[in-house]
Write a structure and sequence with these properties.
With about 160 residues, this protein is an all-alpha fold. The protein has 6 helices and no strands. α2 packs across α3, α2 packs parallel to α4 and α2 runs antiparallel to α6.
Length: about 160
């Protein structure tokens, strides 16, 4: 039987692992080299924060509450991301990877407990992009973000294969 939640969680974990593998494979000096507006270190801080607020936002959505970070959505989450870059300020790659791992473990542990019937449940909260905000949609957004930032790092720092 097809289980969309299990598939989506497996895809999230795979995208997370691929991102972390890419971060580990960077030459030491590349961790702090800008990729446009931010560095791989900044992207790591971004994920420490987004893993946390995806958990909190998912819990809020299940209760029919609009997550606070939606207010920054039309600004491409610049304010939210700036806070994460400042708050999770380590310049040590191993420390950042450990923080990402810890927050991902917490997120996935929570998401596994979300009942199937609540995974795609429309509780009336509307996303700034058209359509209902659901736990599944939040997870999908984070999953795409892990993939996109991995691609960004690969394009900016690693030699072509």
């Amino acid at each position: 039987m097809f289980d969309p939640k299990a598939v989506q969680l497996a895809n999230l974990e795979a995208a997370y692992r691929a991102f972390c593998d890419t971060l580990r494979s960077l030459p030491d000096e590349a961790f702090l080299v800008p990729l446009g507006d931010w560095t791989p270190r900044d992207i790591a801080a971004h994920f420490v924060g987004w893993n946390r607020i995806t958990l909190a936002g998912s819990a809020e959505l299940r209760e029919g509450v609009r997550p606070f970070y939606f207010d920054d959505g039309t600004n491409n989450y610049r304010k939210v991301n700036a806070v994460f870059c400042e708050r999770f300020a380590s310049r040590d790659r191993a420390e950042m990877l450990a923080q990402i791992a810890s927050t991902m473990d917490e997120l996935v542990s929570y998401l596994r407990l979300v009942p199937e019937g609540e995974w795609e449940l429309d509780t009336g909260v509307v996303h700034y992009r058209p359509g209902p905000a659901t736990v599944a949609r939040c997870v999908d957004s984070l999953l795409r973000d892990y993939r996109n930032h991995r691609d960004e790092i690969l394009a900016g720092h690693l030699p072509a294969a």
